[in-house]
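Dear Dr. H.,

I hope your travels went smoothly. While you were away I took the liberty of generating a structure for the chain from your last submission, since the lab meeting agenda had it listed for discussion. I wanted you to have the full record in hand beforehand rather than looking at slides cold. The sequence, exactly as received, is reproduced here:
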Amino acid sequence: MEIAAVIPAYNVASTIGDIVESTKKYVDTVVVVDNNSIDETARIAKEAGALIFKQPIQGAGAATRLGLNAVSHDYDIVVTLDGDGQHIPEGISWLLEQMENSHADMAIGSRFLNIIDDSMPRYRKFGIDVITWLYNIGSKQKVSDSLCCFRAFKKEVVQNIEITEDGFGFSTEMLMKARKAGARIIEVPVSCVYHKDRRRNSVLNPVKQGIILAWKTIYWRLKIDG
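The corresponding predicted structure, in token form, is as follows:
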């Protein structure tokens, strides 16, 4: 069984080398999609042993789309994780183990499943709760964390789901399309790292981003489930 990891990366030169090195222990190939970074992200990732793809269209969705399309036909399972150090690569083995044991098509990390994590900023927890509620309401298949992008997919899921969102709205778009297609989705508890300096956690304005994500979730619910 061949496994690839896809890591969207934007200006994460300070962390990407360690992330690639750690991720290589659990997968056969690491793909880093440089999302038009202006620092040394691509060079450092390549030196650490990753395959590099360039995505000039800004956004996590655009970068993830390119990475998944690049590996979906050659690997049995694809794992996605962030390049900023928020996701802990050591969790890959746990994610894959639970996916195999459950005979699932897709495993998504949850920061709230059987885990009490006081390090997450309250504003972020509130936003995730709202968007996850919008994702869950009226659905038989519910999740506790719709926005965690530490995920694993069988290649059939990747091949049958088209990501159209360039921004972070892809996170719920993918879940809803997989749910609509009948994919068996499980949640796996994962731990994440949050920095005291909010700027290291995300370069996006949290209020603006939260409003956009809420609207995108409503949009896809109406389009797919409506």
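Two observations you may find useful: The two ends are 37 Å apart (CA to CA). Residues 67 and 185 are 21 Å apart (CA to CA).

With kind regards,
E. W.
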